[in-house]
Amino acid sequence: MKAILEELYNGNIYPAELIVPKAPRYRQINKEIYEMLKAWENKLPEGDYKLLEELLDLHCQSSSMEAFASFVYGFRLGAMIMLDVLNEK
Asked: How many domains, in total, are found in the chain?
């Protein structure tokens, strides 16, 4: 296995693409979301459904920003913990 810094530098690490929740209900929930969207697509006029899609896209963007902020916070917290442990006298 290559050194983690080399992998990071070479662009071989993609946390956002590799992190998949391991919760048992994750896939079931996504299936339910898909089915509900299909139902709304069939019920709503095309213009209204487009507005719903835009809303969901904005929500997805917001969720991605929250996930990124959580990732950065967790990484920094982990680094601070390591520094504290290594600097312990």
From this structure: 1
Q: Which residue has the tokens 């662009």?
A: 11
Token representation of residue 2: 């290559």
Region for residue 3 given its phi and psi (left: phi exceeds 0; alpha: psi -120 to 50; beta: otherwise) = beta
Whole domain around residue 81: which residue ranges?
24-86
Largest CA distance in the chain: 68
Contact 84, 76 (CB under 8 A): no
pLDDT, tens only, 29-57:
999 999 999 999 999 999 999 999 999 99
pTM for the structure as a whole: 0.73
Q: Is there a domain that residue 58 lies in? A: yes
Q: How far is CA 39 from the centre of its chain?
A: 25
Say what the alpha-carbon torsion angle 41, 47, 48, 51 is, to the nearest 10 degrees: 100
